[in-house]
Amino acid sequence: MGRKNEQLRWQLAKGLVQALHLERLASKYSRTTVMAVFNLINGGFSIALVAFVALITQEAFIFPSLGATAFILFYVPLAQPASPRNTLCGHLTGALMGLLALYMFGLQGQPSAFTTGVDLPRVGAAALSLGLTSCLMVVFRVAHPPAGATALIVSLGLMPDPAQLPILMAGVALLLAHAFLMNRLAGIPYPLWSAAPEPVLPQHQASRAD
């Protein structure tokens, strides 16, 4: 599985290099170098794009867990957690569970934990938000690890206003749009919604692959 992901990542970087007519770089430098530069450019540009929209609108389009999402979208773009379905549903689940935890522990409208410190209600809210987010992502098969950070961002009071939810999701959608464009430009069939399921190997082949 690790070898397959490595080949996909190289195909992604190589495809973009070819699309931009930079074949000489691909032949001159190692795979690791080309892929590192690819992630440097796309990871940085995608976050800069979202942050610039936040600057223009003065709204919370940018938040910490988008950094982890950007890395997944450009490092393993064909993995299930990187699909638009998992990314959107995962972050939405995390944000909703964060809000639910705030209301259950009476923390709505309270200053963030980074301002006042952590007390017992905040401990409960953080634990409940992450636990519910993890549970629901498994139940609905929309695993997206950065969504766990989104749940904590909300339950710790950094984005406690329900009116911020559409803005949060718009930031995720903007990041996905950039990932779709760059991955398709690179020749990678990044999905419109859900990633193709990985084939299930027979037991003896799976053991041999490991």
Map the helices and strands:
Elements (H helix, E strand, L loop, with lengths): L1 H18 L3 H6 L2 H27 L7 H11 L8 H21 L8 H4 L3 H20 L6 H10 L9 H21 L17 H7 L1
Structural account:
The protein is an all-alpha fold and 210 residues long. It has one domain (2-195). It has helices at 2-19, 23-28, 31-57, 65-75, 84-104, 113-116, 120-139, 146-155, 165-185, 203-209. The longest helix is centred in the N-terminal third of the chain and has 27 residues, at 31-57. It is elongated and about 60 Å long. The chain crosses the membrane at residues 34-54, 60-76, 88-105, 125-143, 163-181. This is HPP family protein.
Sequence of secondary-structure elements: HHHHHHHHHH
Number of extended strands: 0
Report the uncertain regions: none
How big is the Rg? 19 Å
Helical residue percent band: 55-70%
The helix tally amounts to: 10
Query: Domains counted in the coordinates: how many?
Result: 1
Task: Give average pLDDT, whole number.
Answer: 86
Query: Which outline best applies?
Result: elongated
* SS class: mainly alpha
β-strand percent reads under 5%
Main sheet? none
Transmembrane segments: 34-54, 60-76, 88-105, 125-143, 163-181
Pfam family, one: TM_HPP
Keywords: Membrane, Transmembrane, Transmembrane helix
Protein name: HPP family protein
